Amino acid sequence: SLQGKSAVVTGSTSGIGLGIARALAAAGAEVMLNGFGEAAEIEALRQEMEQTHGVRVLYHPADLSQPEQAVDLVKQAESAFGKVDILVNNAGIQHVDKVEDFPPERWDQVIAINLSAAFHTTRVAVPGMKARDFGRIINIASAHGKVASVNKAAYVAAKHGIVGLTKVVALETAEQHITVNAICPGWVRTPLVEAQIEARAKQSGRPYEEEAALLLGERQPSRRFVTPEQIGAFTVFLCGPDGDGITGADLSVDGGFTTH
Ligand code: NAD
User: Fold this and answer.
1) Domain boundary assignment for the chain
2) ipTM metric
3) Is 205 helix (H, G, I), strand (E, B) or coil?
């Protein structure tokens, strides 16, 4: 159980982040949600999670492309909960274009949200973790933190980068009860991936579900999507006492994506 622990999950109003936030709350942790969306929907989600799991659930609207907002997210969680034991850097965006067509402002945005935001939240969360001699930092990287695909220059660069950041912070905290790991998911069916399937279906003229099956078949040998619930359950394991020996690792949850 993660009772008595408090967590910040970036980008937790949707997809993988929401799966992780739910799993942490179900395990007894207090959770600070973050991400974009309709204010009323987010408030309904926050209340529903509090009632379902009997833990405090808060929300902070930080736009993680802005360093000072990333810092404020952690500071607000520290003042509301008294501490941040678990930091999950999950928020991320995608942009698909050939490198020569890649809009420079989109490159900057992907690097800011998918990589630099994790640096800013980490640098302010680590001192408290060191002082209390406990911490768990989980960076949601990607199979694209290990291998590449065409047309994803910024995303692949950011995800390889966050795997590097993970290893450095793991080294710097290794002698304390702090672990820092990257989870590297393969395809998970979330709005981020649905947009890519829709774009491909539009280009090919194939039905959506056929395109989804083709997408899986190209890279994910299991031919099944990984689920946000599976990533959530794995995160809970890493956060628990049995995760104490796992640090500095890039952990694939990818249906075999990175085997070939
Ligand atoms: P998603 O689009 O469903 O969720 C992204 C979340 O991040 C949302 O809550 C969104 O509001 C939030 N967000 C986006 N920009 C933000 C910003 N500037 N500030 C704060 N929050 C912001 O996507 P997802 O698929 O759940 O992706 C979550 C993470 O998992 C990303 O880092 C993504 O790269 C990674 N990932 C996804 C897959 C996949 O197949 N879906 C695979 C590997 C890795």
Assistant:
1) 6-186+227-253, 188-225
2) 0.99
3) coil
Beta strands in 26-161 (DSSP E): 30-34, 57-60, 86-89, 135-140
Mutate to test the pocket of ligand 1, among 16, 114, 184, 219 (most ligand atoms within 8 A of CB): 16
Residue 155 among the catalytic residues = yes
Q: Is 65 in the pocket of ligand 1 (CB under 6 A)?
A: yes
* Strand spans (E) along the chain: 6-9, 30-34, 57-60, 86-89, 135-140, 178-185, 250-253
Name the β-bridge partners of 89: 139
Chain centroid to CA 228 = 10
Task: Look at the domain 6-186+227-253 and name its fold.
Answer: Rossmann fold (3.40.50)
Q: How many whole angstroms separate alpha carbon 17 and alpha carbon 65? A: 17
pLDDT of residue 97: 97
Strand partners, 126: none
For residue 205, which phi and psi values (nearest 5 degrees)?
Answer: 80, 5
User: How many angstroms is it from 175 CA to the middle of ligand 1?
Assistant: 31
CA atoms of 50 and 58, how far apart (whole Å):
9
- Binned at pLDDT 50, 70 and 90, residue 210 comes out as very high
Q: How many residues does the chain have?
A: 260
Instruction: Tell me the per-residue pLDDT of 109-142, one tens digit each, with 9 for 90 and over.
Output: 999 999 999 999 999 999 999 999 999 999 999 9
User: Measured in angstroms, how far is the CA atom of residue 192 from the centroid of ligand 1?
Assistant: 7
CB count within 10 Å of CB 161 equals 18
Q: Is the CB of 59 under 6 A from ligand 1?
A: no
